[in-house]
Each structure stands twice: as structure tokens, then as C-alpha cells.
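Workshop exercise sheet. Pairs work together: one partner reads the sequence aloud, the other fills in the structure field after running the prediction. Swap roles for the next sheet.
Pair: D.N. / O.F.
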Amino acid sequence: MAFEVPSLSYDYNALEPYIDTQTMQLHHDKHHAAYVNNLNNAVKDTDFANKNVDDILRHINDVPDSIRTAVRNNGGGHSNHSMFWAIMKPQGGGEPTGALASAIQQAFGSFDQFKAAFNDAGVKRFGSGWAWLVVDNSGKLSVISTANQDSPLMDGLYPVMGNDVWEHAYYLKYQNRRPDYLAAWWNVVNWDEVARRFQQGSSGR
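Structure field:
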């Protein structure tokens, strides 16, 4: 079965004023759709067409050389964006609670220190890429960034949350002010979904 772009659970304008309507439309309907189309074309008539995209990324070195780059870029784009839409919501923001909040405090000292580290990873990512909160197999959290559409899954890490710092994610509203976008994005974080992903990632997936 072909890979598909997941539907948004909110309207394109629902994340205003932090993420503008036009960016959401283009980002979801054009950019994500292009990754899905290119991924489907790359894996057509192979066994990978019927696999879970996250499982493909976990075993990216098993993908034949002839299609590996296309699968890495477009499979990563599909997986990363599918997560991205889910971890945002209208009237989001605030701070996490429960086990996730405790793990963040243990790993970073405080929520504010975590935010600073996450934003720093996004600001300092040269060119296109992502800032991530990831959990390893021992349940420990850390902040990393990846280039392009590379996924933490390829390094044995589970993406608990990530922010897209490709220019297409913010340029219409923020132009070259990536730090402003990163700061505003916290107002749309869906902590319930992030907490669910933390629990999933901490329990061996």
C-alpha cells in the first residue's frame, strides 16, 4: 500500500499567529506531499513499499544503494513531518507534566534549560534540518539536531519531539529570523502527544 500524507487534525489557520495559514497549506499539501510521492516512486515494486516508514529508517543500511538516498531523504521527510503535525495543536504550549516533565528536569536541570538547549540546536543547525528531543534505549533524553530530513531513528534514537528549521517551515512569516520562529513555536506544542511519544520511546517502541 502506498505511503500517504496524514490529514491534519486542525485547520490550516488554527496555529495562527505563530504559524501562518499559507505556510501550513504549502508545508503540508506541497512539501510533505512531494516527499510522499518521491518515496512511493523510489520503493515502487520493492518489498519496502509495504513496510512502516519508521522501520525502514531504523534499517536504512538495508535499503539498496540504488534507492537509499531517495529513501533516506524522502522517507525521512515523510516520517519527520508526520510527527511534526501531530505534536502541534491550537492553544498548545505551556509545560509538560508527569513523567515527561520529570525526565526533562533530570536530563536538563529545568524546563527553561531544556528550551534553551532545544532552541540553540535549531538556531545553530547550518542550512536545513531539524532540532530534536530524543530518547535512547535506556530512557535518557537528549537534544540533538540533524541535517536535511535525516531522522534520529537512523541512529537508534527515538524522536520524542522535533521542530522543522527548513526555511519552508517559517520563511513566509519570519523571513531570516529563525530564532523568532523557534521562540514562537513553543506556543503550539501539543504536550499530550509529546508525552505519549516519550512513553512509547521509553518502552522500547
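Discussion prompt: The chain has two domains: 21-86, 98-202. What would you look at next?
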